[in-house]
Amino acid sequence: MWAAVVAAAAVVGVTVALVLVQVNRGDADDGPGRSAEPQAGGSVSPSVSSDTYLSATPEAEPSPSVSPSPTGPELPVGYAPFVDPQGFRIALPIGWTRQTVASEYGMDVVNFRSPTGEQRLQVFEVAEASPQESFDLFLSPQTAKAPGFDRLALDDLAGDVTGARLEYLADSIRGEPDVGTWHVVDVRFVAADGARYAIAAYGRDDDGRDDEFELAGTGLDWFCPSTVTCDTAM
Questions:
Q1: Is 7 domain-assigned?
Q2: Residue 94, domain CATH
Q3: Which residues contact 10 (CB under 8 A, 6 or more apart)?
Q4: What DSSP line would sit under 147-186, residue for residue?
Q5: Domain count within the chain
Q6: What share of the chain is helix, strand, coil (3-state, %, to 5)?
Q7: What is the pTM for the complete model shown?
Q8: Is residue 8 part of a domain?
Q9: Is residue 12 situated within a structural domain?
Q10: Which domain of life is it from (predicted)?
């Protein structure tokens, strides 16, 4: 079950070297919503900020606001929790790069990318009043879509999370490499702070679709907004 969880973290400059916090020591191509620059459903260009490289550091201490707990979601092999300078906590594969872009609404849009550049995990705040309203806007005729956009499924999230998950294909994503068809799993949800967020996983379609579901699902399991404290898996 995907569960929304919450954490606070100190905000630091994006030019500072970051680490994935090991808690076991205690564009028209982007997704829907007005939160992405430059407009609803608009592409988020990564060129406005430099890469920051993420790595696992066993010696790194978790944020003091993260309370250790004996229970929590299990991380896939190769993943680690990460407290972002924007304040939220998430989990993603070790060794990815991080870039940010200013948003029309809420926190900056954060893009995490794999070393090959063929996968991306995007996190941002949703301006619409509900996840469903955000997807309704994106899927409406008034919102431009990526070339070759093909909606596969739109499902409500099960369990304790209020939200929905859109799965689709696209021939290309602006600002991203040409990998053939892109597979996208975009999750919109209400977090424990009452705000709406998006976690969208992008990857090539020809290597299977499970990895995007894993990226988005793990990100949601471990997501903690900056204003509240969450329990942490040990």
A1: no
A2: 3.40.1000.10
A3: 63
A4: TT-EEEEEEEPPTT-EEEEEEEEES--TTS---SSEEEEE
A5: 1
A6: 10, 30, 55
A7: 0.74
A8: no
A9: no
A10: Bacteria
